[in-house]
Structure formats: C-alpha cells, structure tokens
Specification:
Elements (H helix, E strand, L loop, with lengths): L1 H40 L7 E8 L20 H15 L5 E4 L6 H12 L9 H13 L5 E2 L8 H10 L3 H21 L6 H8 L7 H7 L9 H22 L6 E8 H13 L4 E2 L10
Helix pairs in contact: 2-4, 8-9, 9-10
Length: about 290
C-alpha cells in the first residue's frame, strides 16, 4: 500500500520534474548560445581597419556652421608651409583611403578636379578637402578620394522659438551664452598667431567636444512639440549616416582609413569607431606636429 502511494506521489510529481528539467535545459542552451555569440563579437573580424578621424576647422570659412569665425588666408606662403608640414605628418599614418566631408554624389566632379591637380592643371582652393585631402592623396599616390557626408536640415531657429513659446527663458539665455562660449573657444585655438598644426591639435583634443551644446538643446519645447529633442535626434542621425558611409568603404583587411571632417562631428564619429568591435580608433594627436 505504501509502495503504491509512493509510486502515485512520484508519478504526480513527474510533470513538475519534467518541466523543471526542460527549463534547466533551456537555460543551459540559452547560456551556451549567449557565450558563443559573445565570443563571436570578439572573434577575428572579417574586415579590420585602423580609422583616424581628423577634426578640422573649415579653411575656406563657408559660413555654413552654427558658429563661424574669421580666419586668415590659408593660401599665404606661411600657411602653405604649415599645411605641407601637416600633410607630411599625416602621411606617416599611410592611409589606404581618404574620406572627406562632401556627399558621395559629388565624387565624380571632385575626383575630376583631383586628376587635374595631379596633372598640374588645377590650383588647390582654400578648402581643407583640397589643402589636406588632395595634397595627401597625391603624395601617397592615391587614384581617388571619397565623399561620405549626409546633409540634414538642422533647424536651430525652431529650437529657440520652441523654447520661447514654452516659456523657457532661462534655457534660451543659456543656449545663447553657450554659442558665445563656443565662439570664444574657437577664437582661442585658431588665429593669425596660431599655426595650422597647433589649431588642429586643439580641435582634436578630447576636451574639445562640442556635444554638450546639442544635449542641452534636448530640453527645448514641450512634450507635444519637443523641438530640441528632434534636433538632437537629427544630429545623431546625420552622424550615424556618415558613419555608415565610412563602414561601407572599408572593403579589405588591414585598411587604414583617414576621415577628414569638421571638428563638431569628431567626438561622435570617434565614439562610433571605438564601439565597433572590428575597427581600431587611431588618434591624429600621435601624428600632428607639435608646433
């Protein structure tokens, strides 16, 4: 009788034991898959590249940024010698591709000018695409350069207006003050008495970030019309699209990619590179001249 009761008790428990066992098996399988997946993230990549993001100011000062400052003529003999020293220094990185801040749809026209430059039929403009990009590409024997930019309409006016309508007077005042701080900082790191190399080193210093301004904007507006958050999202979206274009141009193992871009983009692009499991960020500070 007792044996029968015992057997009945065990039988009654069997479904519970069965479910428990299956749960254990599922957990072990999940853990195994997780560990395999985690190991694959750290496994040897299919395409490994050294990526250097060189943050620059705009040599021609086209007036397209939120904060624009006056600069002296980079075509002057003194500046040309300084740019030549910068190009020689960057050549030590030995980039296999040079990527620039213009849309890829302009590749044909830009590279037509580059071929003319190599043939001696084109004089370099003031733009950093020419002064650094073309000079370096010619020095290294590159056949072409690559545009990776993505344009989005960042409506800063709507952010200020949205903050004003939301009664965020203190935020409006702070945004204005932040713009003046950025303008003052840029004025301190570039000017007639500061060499191109020293200015570029300052623009590529990790302390020269610039993202704080965009993050502060996120508060502007209301929950129904978050003008600041929308602009912040667009800013991140633009840089993510640029980064995607960079990745698509990494085609071979052991590529060394130089990305020459406005310094406002630098910290985000560097963060993207650092967080990508396949590629290695290379700081330009180890190459740029000290003076």
């Amino acid at each position: 009788m007792e044996n029968s009761i015992g057997r009945m008790f065990l039988v009654s428990l069997f479904p519970s034991f069965q479910r428990l066992a299956m749960n254990r098996i599922q957990q072990v399988c999940f853990l195994a898959l997780f560990l395999v997946g985690f190991s694959l993230v750290g496994a040897s990549p299919l395409r490994a590249a050294d990526v250097m993001v060189l943050g620059t100011f705009h040599f021609a000062n086209p007036g397209l940024d939120l904060v624009n400052t006056e600069i002296d003529d980079v075509l002057a003999a003194k500046r040309q010698a300084e740019i030549a020293a910068v190009v020689d220094a960057l050549a030590r990185f030995k980039p296999t591709k040079i990527l620039l801040e213009y849309p890829s749809r302009q590749d044909r026209g830009f590279n037509s000018k580059y071929r003319s430059y190599k043939a001696g039929d084109y004089s370099l403009s003031r733009n950093e695409h020419d002064q650094i990009g073309m000079r370096l590409a010619k020095q290294l024997g590159h056949e072409r350069l690559y545009g990776v930019d993505e344009k989005l309409d960042l409506d800063f006016d709507s952010v200020f207006e949205g903050a004003g309508r939301a009664g965020q007077e203190k935020l409006v005042a702070r945004m204005g003050q932040d713009i003046e701080k950025i303008r003052k900082k840029i004025g301190e790191i570039q000017g007639p008495k500061i060499s191109i190399a020293r200015s570029l080193r300052a623009h590529n210093d990790p302390e020269f970030d610039g993202q704080e301004f965009y993050v502060v904007l996120a508060e502007a507006g209301t929950a129904k019309n978050p003008t600041g958050a929308k602009l912040l999202a667009d800013w991140y979206r633009r840089n993510a699209l640029i980064f995607a274009n960079i990745l698509r141009l990494i085609e071979d193992e052991d590529e060394r990619v130089l990305v020459i871009y406005g310094s406002g983009h630098k910290s985000l692009l560097v963060d993207f590179v650092k967080h990508h499991p396949d590629h290695q960020n290379v700081s330009p500070l180890g190459f740029l001249p000290e003076k």
